Amino acid sequence: MKLNTLHDLYVDQLKDLYNAENQIVKALPKMEKAAHSQPLQKAYHDHLEQTRHQVQRLEQIFNELGESPTGKRCKGMEGLLEEGEEILTEDADPDVRDAGLIAAAQKVEHYEISGYGTARTFAERLGFTKAAQVLQQILDEEKQTDEKLTALAESSVNTRAKQ
Ligand code: FE
Ligand code: FE
Fold first, then answer.
1. Which of 115, 104, 110 is nearest to 143 (CA)?
2. With left for phi above 0 and alpha for psi between -120 and 50, is residue 71 left, alpha or beta?
3. Is residue 95 a part of any domain in this protein?
4. What pLDDT, in 10s, does the model give residues 109-121?
5. Residue 102 forms part of a structural domain
């Protein structure tokens, strides 16, 4: 893909996010299964539903652009998920594993927050007002998920992992 314009870069970034989201859809059930704390399981479960809906909204954006969402592998997300999944194979105490799972999930959310912030700004600059609103909405969901994970870690998981 040739990147001559901001529009080209916008599509390229969206493809990256689309691929990242699809990788997350595959990874979240494994994380949910590995989580020991029930609220953490639920957080993964809820975010899976939300992530599926994010994929659909990205498809809608591609539709309106007349572009295909496929054709890119998000290597950043691949690396984050690969690293996050290392904890699944470790012989870890359940509460310590939960703390590790939260740490990995927050890295994923921060990567997404960064990507959606950029994509939203490009959409605004290019005059795609509706897409910018949708991207802002997804960005807000990622931020809320990050905050929920912080709250879970601070309220119980880290305390139990310390004992
Ligand atoms: Fe997402
Ligand atoms: Fe997310």
1. 110
2. left
3. yes
4. 999 999 999 999 9
5. yes
> pLDDT at residue 1 above 80?
no
CA of 163 to the centre of ligand 1 (A): 33
pLDDT of res. 38 = 95
Token pair of 22 as six digits: 């699809």
Residue 119 maps to a domain: yes
- 85/123 Cα distance (integer angstroms): 33
Q: What is the domain-level CATH number for residue 72?
A: 1.20.1260.10
- Whole-number Å distance, alpha carbon 16 to ligand 2 midpoint, is 14
Domain with 78, as residue range(s), is 6-162
* CA 43–ligand 2 middle distance (angstroms): 11
Q: Which ligand has the minimum distance to the alpha carbon of residue 55? A: 1
For the stretch 88-99, pLDDT in tens is: 888 899 999 999
For 112, residues 6+ apart whose C-beta sits below 8 A from its C-beta are 17, 20, 142
Q: Which ligand is nearest to the CA of 17?
A: 1
User: How far does the centroid of ligand 2 lie from the alpha carbon of residue 128, in Å?
Assistant: 23
Number of domains composing the chain: 1
**What spacing in Å lies between the alpha carbon of 147 and ligand 2's midpoint?**
11
Task: Please indicate, yes or no, if residue 47 is contained in any of the structural domains.
Answer: yes
> Mean pLDDT over all residues of the chain?
95
